[in-house]
UniProtKB/TrEMBL annotation:
Keywords: Exonuclease, Hydrolase, Ligase, Nuclease. Transmembrane segments: none annotated. It is an enzyme of class 3 (hydrolase). This is Ligase-associated DNA damage response exonuclease. Coiled coil: none annotated. NCBIfam families: Xnuc_lig_assoc. Its EC number is 3.1.-.-. One of its GO terms (molecular function) is RNA endonuclease activity.
Amino acid sequence: MRADPILLPTKDGLYCPAGRFHIDPLRPVERALITHGHSDHARFGHRHVMASRQTLDIMRLRMGPDFAGATQEAMGEMRIGDVTVGFHPAGHVLGSSQIAVTQGGRRIVVSGDYTRQPNPTCLPFQPVPCDVFVTEATFGLPVFRFPDPATQIAKLMASMAEFPERPHLIGAYALGKAQHVIALLRAAGHDAPIAIHGALAGLCDYYVSQGVDLGVLVPATADEVAAQLVVAPPSAFASPWVQRFRDPVLAFASGWMAVRARARQRGVELPLIISDHVDWPMLTGTLTELAPAEVWVTHGTEEGVIRWCELAQIPARPLRLVGYEDEAEE
């Protein structure tokens, strides 16, 4: 399949020659356009970074004020070199964007990570008509069919009612998933204080500053945490920190909890299938809705999506960009 003159896969990631920029580059470059703040998309050391205001704020929180030589907030459609660039909501985490690059009437949309399920903590995915759609494939197999997140929160609350004497520890990635889970709990009527690991405090504070209601949050620092519900990054479960809790119910919020072997490997008693990525029906439904002339697949199980595209008579190819890996905690 021919190379596209607008975006080219290179060793540094997707590159736009006419605009002289990379999208989510894998290593420091002159000019980077960033879809969202997760570390496999947003990296330290670029000379110039353009992203949504919230993504820029999140990068500063996670990497420090000097994460890039210069920054520019993406606002509306912009001309960069000989192309037009637009940032559109992706529904993944706060500030997450799809990046549309248009030249000569031809448009490529790079989705970054995205979901079609409603997420109370960020703007919903906006379908953008395009000639080429670059989709993630984190859960790009038919086995992945995620339930309504409300059913998973109901399962968690039922466990808390059944075992009121046991603290419930939820593993949730620090950016996006933790705030998503907390917001879902609040929407389900859980008004009691929720304890959070210190690693989550800065990002939770930022979400609150952006109008996301997370209710009363308390630090999970005391030897005896009063809250029955504790949210922490999954890495904390492998540290001495977890030993302060007596007989906890270990839960983990992730799309990977749809795979029972993953839950057993992690010692998870209460798997919660909550993801901020598209599952198989959402992914294929998005491709059907957009009906692009071509699909590029990256960031996961590329073969299954490409086979589906073949059956749907949509030209597709894997990008196989080395360095794009799924967040281990997702």
